């Protein structure tokens, strides 16, 4: 069946991405977008961005939007598959790391590697943001995002309030 | 940190070593972190593990966070696996993982079905568009905050722009971007350019 093929492919996608999600999963957004929207046409960019926003309003670590993508494709089984696959490599690597924690602490390469990777992960996060702006319907979405960005940069306001305000603005202006 | 309360008598290292939270306590601690974590779990992790439970001290917490950053995966989930493994091995890691992810997952799936039940209402769609715009802005803000010291280094900016452009315009896969740009980044950082 077609649905189960999608499930297997999604599991493979997240299994491979699980080795790469240094600095969280947000830098992987361009790859996920390519899979779910561009290649497979399983959802629109608006739906894709909507799931990320929905996960943002709910509590929990920020990998749960991945479960929503999975749920969209194959229900509960999809959600659990996506979450398990994306967590595989980090889980195994953390269990191993915990056992050699002290040795790793003293390794001079740790700092070098972290510094070297930082610009790359941030660059990929930017790419993810740009991908999401493709779902912006018109200039009003850009204006709202611009204002929100300035507020995030200049205040310590909790993101939850801002996302709530975004929903109110969206309804008020019929975005 | 200065804001943590100073214990009257510092516990002996031997006493610290001997303390092991029960599996139930482990599960509940990470469940509490999971459901309190709105927009970033790390501050809650610090509050619950360091200030409330006192399983880790400030310094230990900061060091574990650095290690969690070097390993793929979200920091707080990695921290759950770390703490779980330390106290109860792989089984402990699973307990802590399910604790931090499980209940929030159920909440999110419920929220999602509520959203889909009303998705045909135009106002719900409008609200979702507004939320998505703000969430995108938040992602941009987080990536800038994460940048750290490399913003002041010209090579850092070049590398950051190159990684973004390769993913966005050249449609390179993550793995390739990380491999190529990551190798350049580590070389630059070794030379002291980052």
Overview of the molecule:
The complex is a heterodimer of chains A (175) and B (194). Chain A has 175 residues and is mainly α. Chain A has one domain. In chain A, 78% of the residues lie in helices and 0% in strands. Chain A has helices at residues 2-17, 29-39, 45-57, 64-99, 101-105, 109-133, 139-154, 159-172. In chain A, helix 1 (2-17) crosses helix 4. Chain A starts with a helix and ends with a helix. With 194 residues, chain B is an all-alpha fold. Chain B folds into two domains: 1-121, no CATH class; 143-194, no CATH class. Chain B has helices spanning 13-18, 23-36, 42-52, 58-70, 75-117, 122-146, 154-168, 174-191. In chain B, helix 4 (58-70) crosses helix 5. Classes of the chains: A mainly alpha (175), B mainly alpha (194). Chains A and B meet through helix 2, helix 3, helix 4, helix 5 and helix 6 of A and helix 2, helix 4, helix 5, helix 6 and helix 7 of B.
Tell me briefly what this model is.
Chain A is an all-alpha fold and about 180 residues long.
How many beta strands in the DSSP annotation of chain B?
Answer: 0
Query: Whole-number average pLDDT of chain A?
Result: 88
Helix content of chain B: over 70%
Please tell me the overall pLDDT of chain B. 84
Main sheet makeup of chain A = none
* Poorly predicted sequence stretches spanning 5 or more consecutive residues of chain A: none
Q: How many beta-strand runs of chain A?
A: 0
Compute the gyration radius of chain A: what is it?
18 Å
- Count the DSSP helices of chain B: 8
Radius of gyration of chain B over all CA atoms, rounded: 21 Å
Query: What's the number of helices of chain A?
Result: 8
Return the string of H and E elements of chain A: HHHHHHHH
* Multimer state: heterodimer
Residue ranges of chain B: pLDDT <50 for 5 or more in a row? 1-16
Q: State the major sheet of chain B.
A: none
SS-based class of chain B: mainly alpha
Net shape of chain A: globular
Distance between the termini of chain B: 27 Å
């Amino acid at each position: 069946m077609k649905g189960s093929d999608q499930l297997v492919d999604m599991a493979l996608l997240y299994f491979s991405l699980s080795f790469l999600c240094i600095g969280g999963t947000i830098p992987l957004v361009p790859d996920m977008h390519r899979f779910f929207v561009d290649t497979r046409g399983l959802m629109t960019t608006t739906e894709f961005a909507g799931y990320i926003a929905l996960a943002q309003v709910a509590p929990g670590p920020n990998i749960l939007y991945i479960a929503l993508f999975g749920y969209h494709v194959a229900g509960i089984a999809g959600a659990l598959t996506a979450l398990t696959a994306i967590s595989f490599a980090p889980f195994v690597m953390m269990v191993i790391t915990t056992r050699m924690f002290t040795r790793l602490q003293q390794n001079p390469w740790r700092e070098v590697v972290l510094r070297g990777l930082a610009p790359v992960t941030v660059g990929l996060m930017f790419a993810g943001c740009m991908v999401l702006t493709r779902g912006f319907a018109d200039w009003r979405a850009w204006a709202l995002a611009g204002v929100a960005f300035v507020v995030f940069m200049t205040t310590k306001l909790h993101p939850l309030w801002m996302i709530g305000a975004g929903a109110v603005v969206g309804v008020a202006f019929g975005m | 940190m200065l804001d943590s309360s100073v214990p009257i008598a510092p516990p002996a290292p031997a006493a610290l070593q001997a303390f092991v939270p029960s599996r139930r306590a482990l599960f509940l601690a990470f469940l509490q972190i999971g459901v309190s974590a709105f927009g970033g779990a790390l501050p809650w992790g610090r509050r619950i593990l360091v200030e409330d439970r006192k399983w880790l001290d400030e310094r230990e917490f900061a060091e574990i966070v650095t290690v969690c950053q070097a390993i793929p995966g979200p920091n707080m989930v990695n921290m759950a696996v770390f703490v779980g493994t330390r106290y109860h091995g792989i089984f402990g890691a699973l307990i802590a993982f399910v604790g931090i992810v499980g209940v929030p997952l159920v909440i999110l799936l419920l929220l999602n079905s509520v959203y889909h039940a009303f998705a045909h209402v135009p106002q719900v769609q409008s609200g979702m568009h507004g939320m998505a715009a703000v969430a995108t802005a938040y992602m941009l803000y987080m990536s800038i905050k994460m940048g750290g010291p490399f913003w002041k280094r010209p090579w850092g900016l070049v590398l950051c722009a190159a990684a973004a452009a390769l993913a966005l315009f050249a449609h390179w896969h993550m793995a390739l971007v990380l491999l190529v740009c990551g190798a350049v980044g580590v070389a630059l950082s070794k030379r002291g350019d980052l």
